[in-house]
Amino acid sequence: MNGYAGTILRIDLTKFFIKKQPLTIDFARNYLGGTGFCAKILWDEIKERIDPLSEKNIIVFATGPITGTIFPPSGRYVISSLSPLTNIWCESHAGGFFGPELKYAGYDAVVISGKAKEPVYIFINDGNVSIVDAKELWGLDTFETTNKLLEKLGFARVACIGQAGENLVRYACIMNDKYRAAGRGGLGAVMGSKNLKAIAVRGKGSVKVANFNKFMSIAENARKKYTKGKWGIAAQESLGRLGTPALVEAEQEIGRLPTKNHFTGIFKDYESIGSIAIKNRFRRRRKSCFCCAIQCKFLSSIEEGKYKGYSDGPEYETVFAFGSNCLNNNLESIIHANFLCNRYGLDSISTGKAISFAMECEENKLISEGIEWGNEEKIIELIKKIALREGIGKLLAEGTMRAAKKIGKGAKKYAMEVKGMEISGQDGRPHKSCGLVHAISVRGADHLRALSSLDELGYDDVVKERYPKEWKKILELRSESGKGKLIVDMEDLYAIVDSLLICKYGTMWPPIFYFNDFAEIIPALTGFNEYSRVEHVRKVAKRIALLRRAFNARLGIRRKDDCLPKRFTKEKMPSGPAKGEVVNLNLMLNDFYDYRGCRRDGLPKKDVLVKVGLEDVAKELGC
Amino acid sequence: ASRITVLNDDFFDYAIACKHCAKPVCMDVCPTNAILKKGEVVTVIEKKCIGCALCIEACPFGAIHIYKNVAIICDLCDGNMECVKVCIQNALKIFKVGRIGENRRARITRRLKRASEFHAIGQIPPLEVKK
């Protein structure tokens, strides 16, 4: 099958049962891959609210048609499951080399169910799949696990969990290739609950494409767009040269750098934690994911002192979470925090947010643990405590929503979360559409499902081209009108991006690829000729986006859950360029639901579902 | 399967492909004479190959794979190297054996020349910085 490996691997850890299921052409045609596959599989198998850490939950590793081909950012894969942090849909994407290797081994998706009695790891060597005892790996961190497995297996790509995943920290992540994290949503805890320590993959196969010559020229063009021209040069200058921490300076400028647990949007010491400081002081070498043309990854090391060590990153989200968010201006401690999070297997955004939540509770005398703002030693100590569930770490490891409930006494207003997931490194008050994105995103407060950089950075030529009627409204950064259409369009676009599985760099920023590019890529890659019509690509995008939404709706997610913390909707921004702004969410939500094809209470409409070919979904939802 | 492999770890990324040796050992050990040297290029005659993996054992660089029971060796894409074209960091280049020596000699000469210039004015030359 062109563009696909052609097999879905099913592993039941309770019965030690391995089954290879052929990928049907209709399934591939309708759901394309990646998040589309995950959405369909999860929709079919999880029909009601269950405990995400019980053996009833399943975890899906999926690749898309582009994964493993020569198209520039093709190293990504997706992990999806019911999240222990939010109890609803969760998908988490990661780069590196694991995804392509999985596809070369011959699998489009791996579905893992059940629960092993004792710690195991899975070794996939092309056609041979084995479940191996992992007692000696249990209790090791992600680096040691990867190194031990590499020693044992020779050459392999490893995705594993650290101590945080074993201890069922609700925001533990899965690390692949040592440094690439499928971070958000606590998928590491799901793996830990199944007693699954790691998955090692070795694949020697290849991916066939439908139209080789056309696909090669498309890939060549894409590479040119990434390295030359207006967008290419901009991408190389910021992402290539400085990596994602370049955002620290950019966000500070527009007053969106979350500071002091989202109290404000500007941080006075931003320069000491910014990208230039990282580059000059600690950055050692540039790295890259599989087949990438931007190459924004880098390795940084601290040679001496108490924070000695080396690790990839830190990325922007980590810098803000342990830096400005905790009022910490010590860069070495941030790099060490990143290093610890990688080793224990913790999501650095949620960890940073849990710590800043504890700091704000301490300030308001709700807890007394001696955690003041900006105390870098406490931050490092807390990371260890959270990963090992010791002392106050036991409380924080449950996530801010649950911790706030346990503390009580109004701690809820310091928990910066939506649907249970901690808010990522943006702020809705200076950038109104971003507030909407945090509220409506299917996996909780998250920027990667629908965030738009078009209005944020004012790319008027792109906006005019894409939305010829509404461009004026969309370009107004601080106004609530017209944002529904923009965000629905972005959610659809990212649904396709997450299904093909290319990087957000290239679609979110710089805005290079759009539906018409995908209408060219997909037929050349898979031979599905109906995708050469842009309307069809949009229809499939809508199908995937609505199926994820319907999955949540079946679990009882409605308008009341699409909300923001009071800090964003009631407290005015105290300083910075966006002084005095709040998010007027209801206005934007109505707009969003109308364009999304949902009723005003958040449930997808029947005729919209039927139109995109989801009749059975409409029937089951009973809308 | 790809004819070029990248190995990577924390501090290195290293691309491994056939070096098209002047006296290929893989050719010597092949029991069916499936590996030949056509001009400068080591080639596998896929019909003759029996997939015995002796060449993998023999290759000092680990540049050979077996895929679907046939030895896979870099064939230089018939002179139109795709990997060199797509390498955006210009880390991959193609040289004839003679050119590698020439380049090395030229580099040393440049360094000596610079040193002698500084020596003439009585200064220690600064270290050559890679761009």
Task: List strands and helices in order, with pairings.
The complex is a heterodimer of chains A (623) and B (131).
Chain A: E1 7-12, E2 17-22, H1 25-31, H2 34-45, E3 59-62, E4 77-82, E5 89-94, H3 98-104, E6 109-113, E7 120-125, E8 128-133, H4 142-153, E9 157-160, H5 163-166, E10 174-176, E11 180-182, H6 187-193, E12 196-202, H7 212-227, H8 229-242, H9 246-254, H10 275-281, E13 283-287, E14 297-302, E15 309-312, H11 316-322, H12 331-344, H13 348-363, H14 376-388, H15 392-396, H16 400-407, E16 417-418, E17 421-422, H17 432-440, H18 454-457, H19 460-466, H20 471-475, H21 483-500, H22 515-526, H23 534-554, H24 566-569, H25 585-596, H26 606-611, H27 615-621
Parallel strand pairs in A: 1-6, 7-12
Antiparallel strand pairs in A: 1-2, 3-4, 3-6, 4-5, 7-8, 9-10, 9-12, 10-11, 13-14, 14-15, 16-17
Helix pairs in contact in A: 1-2, 2-21, 2-23, 7-8, 7-22, 11-13, 12-14, 17-21, 17-25, 21-23, 21-25, 22-23
Chain B: E1 5-8, E2 13-16, H1 25-29, E3 35-38, E4 41-44, H2 54-58, E5 65-67, E6 70-72, H3 82-86, H4 97-120
Antiparallel strand pairs in B: 1-2, 3-4, 5-6
